[in-house]
Amino acid sequence: MKMTNYPKSVVIEEQGLRDGLQSETKVVPTEKKLDIIDALLDAGVKRIQVVSFVNPKVIPQMADAENLFTALKKHTGVVYSVLVLNPKGMQRAASAGVSHATASISASNSHSLRNTGLSLNTARRQFSEMVRLGKNSGLTVRGGIQCVFGCRYEGRIAPNTVMDMIKEQLDQGIDEIELADTTGMADPRAILEICGSVRDLAADKPVYLHLHDTEGKGLANALAALQVGITHFDSTFGGMGGCPFIKGASGNIATEDLAFMLEQMGITTGLDIDRIAAISWSLEDFFNKRFSGKMHRLLAREDIQFKR
């Protein structure tokens, strides 16, 4: 039987503070966000997407973007990233002292119109301006494509469209690339085919996979990605998140679920899974709701003797 050569370690970017909170109606105070960041650092997280620089009238949860980024204590060896969707957002990020920004656009015209008010063609033109502004300000720029594996409005996205967009972004000098399963429509076979091709095209540039668990295939898709050399993932504590502009879009794969599976497989994440689980528990209390993740209910309960 042929065995897959899995990586020895992976990089996980925690996006709970951005993707996890953006759809919540109860606004989290800046001070509490700073406390969450401190807790993530204590859990060994080395990459945190802390906020998005977007219209606060549309996403009120991100209204404190400048204040939050200015107030957080920067630690050596930790990447504090942000998301931007247009040139204005990139300018705001640069002015706030950001060093790492993800410039993201959608592969779906319908989703792009709902998410940013821009057609796909216009968004593609604006992307180059975002990269130019970021690079001129000395930022590390991660390119990003949403709805890579499908759109609830348009169905499957043609792989050629995705690959053309990736080539465009690489040609414009991005430092990393993110593939987002925004609607959770990916399946392991699609992951193998698309991620393998992107991994080859990106060469030495890191490829991040941003998985949503809408259809319950999140971890299966992560496993498939590992098999074609993907070693960088986005996730959120507790499996929080979802796109405010896609009906029924559920959260991301949960950080503690992903890390637990990887560690069981002998793949190092560098994360203290119990501490991540404790963050998820505390936020379930704060929002008075149940998150979609699984492992935090086992790992953060003192009354359960859980053997790993």
Whole-number mean pLDDT: 92
Low-confidence stretches: 303-308
Q: Order of SSEs, N→C? A: EHHEHEHEHHEHEHEHEHHH
Largest sheet: 8 strands, parallel
The total of beta strands comes to 8
Distance between the termini: 27 Å
C-alpha Rg, in Å? 18 Å
Strand order of the largest sheet: 1-8-7-6-5-4-3-2
Helix fraction, binned, reads 40-55%
Shape descriptor: globular
Task: Give me the number of helical elements.
Answer: 12
Structural class: alpha/beta
| Beta-strand content bin | 5-15%
What can be said about this structure in brief?
Helices cover 41% and strands 15% of the residues. It has 308 residues and is of the alpha/beta class.
Structure report:
With 308 residues, the protein is an alpha/beta fold. 41% of the residues lie in helices and 15% in strands. It has an 8-stranded parallel β-sheet. β3, α4 (87-95) and β4 (100-106) form a beta-alpha-beta unit. The chain is globular. The two termini are 27 Å apart.
Show the helix and strand layout:
Layout: E1 11-14, H1 16-20, H2 30-42, E2 47-53, H3 65-71, E3 79-84, H4 87-95, E4 100-106, H5 109-116, H6 120-136, E5 140-146, H7 159-171, E6 176-181, H8 188-202, E7 207-211, H9 218-227, E8 232-235, H10 255-264, H11 273-287, H12 296-299
Parallel strand pairs: 1-8, 2-3, 3-4, 4-5, 5-6, 6-7, 7-8
Helix pairs in contact: 4-6, 7-8, 8-9, 10-11
Summary keywords:
single chain, 308 residues, alpha/beta, 8-stranded parallel beta sheet, 12 helices, 8 strands, 41% helix, disordered C terminus
